[in-house]
Please model this.
Amino acid sequence: MKKARILVTRRWPQAVEAVLAERFDAEFNTSDRPMDQAMLADALARFDAVLPTVSDRLPAALFGQGALAARIIGNYGVGYNHIDIAAASARGIAVTNTPGVLTDCTADIAMTLLLSVARRAGEGEREVRAGVWTGWRPTHMIGTKVTGKTLGIIGFGRIGKAMARRCHFGFDMDVVFYNRSRVDPAEAARHGARQLDTVEEVLAAADFVSLHCPGGGENTGLIDARRLQAMKPSALLINTARGDIVDEAALASALAEGRIAGAGLDVYAAEPHVPEALRQMENVVLLPHLGSATAETRIAMGMKVVDNITAFFEGREPPDRVA
Ligand code: DGY
Model:
């Protein structure tokens, strides 16, 4: 039987590329440079499957009038707000993602950011590396205690729950959350958390706010100037979800004016661009979208894509179909 023609838009872990190369007629982007819109349009026109990542944009325009060969988009990642899934569906193209396998590592990076901002780890590291540390003193680089504080979570999906467990059971924190749909209180309690009715209530209660909702759509700009104002002046904002959830200009202003105390960011609205104002601030810890960046998770994500497209081309329902 003729193998399906697939295009992989970035380099993936070697172990996964090997499986793809064996199972499919696979083309890899060996340069690993992001593909532009013309290249992605060409890929959709020529390949049976296109396997993109969060670094690719697939807006409605790419699914326009021309003939498309693609029958499935196997996204490498759980978030898929970079793909216009309505436009893909309208052209009869299936879309899959990779949920579950990056839950722990993403919650771990949220925890890394929370601890780093609270305990000024970025600043401290910069001081030591610059060779300007003058030694221990009682007033040196005083941070904020984490244990026993209140964490506010926005979005109580897999990653939000994993973050709740880390903070409640590991750091003795009171965990409150906002979620669009109601969560059974017994289920919330299993994760050491309780649901509040509004985003504002969570923001007002929290010493640390951690975002775990999807990006795009109605969540774009969810954390705007008004909601930043609703946070405690001593509070820290952590974002490992999607950059567009936060109004970055409003965040920079809130930080500059001391309306909130700090931020830890792994994601940005227009990656890899990081606003200059944020890069200048000592009380902001900035990571380059590392949430899922462990060997184990990146391989597991790739194997999920393999499972999804294998099922599709064998005529079975892909396990992680989102459209
Ligand atoms: C995801 O899976 O959505 C991540 O942000 C990419 O690692």
Q: What stands out?
A: The chain has a mean pLDDT of 98. The pocket of (2R)-2,3-dihydroxypropanoic acid is lined by residues 54, 77-79, 102, 291-292 (CB under 6 Å). The two ends are 27 Å apart (CA to CA). Residues 5-100+295-313 form a domain with the Rossmann fold fold (CATH 3.40.50.720).
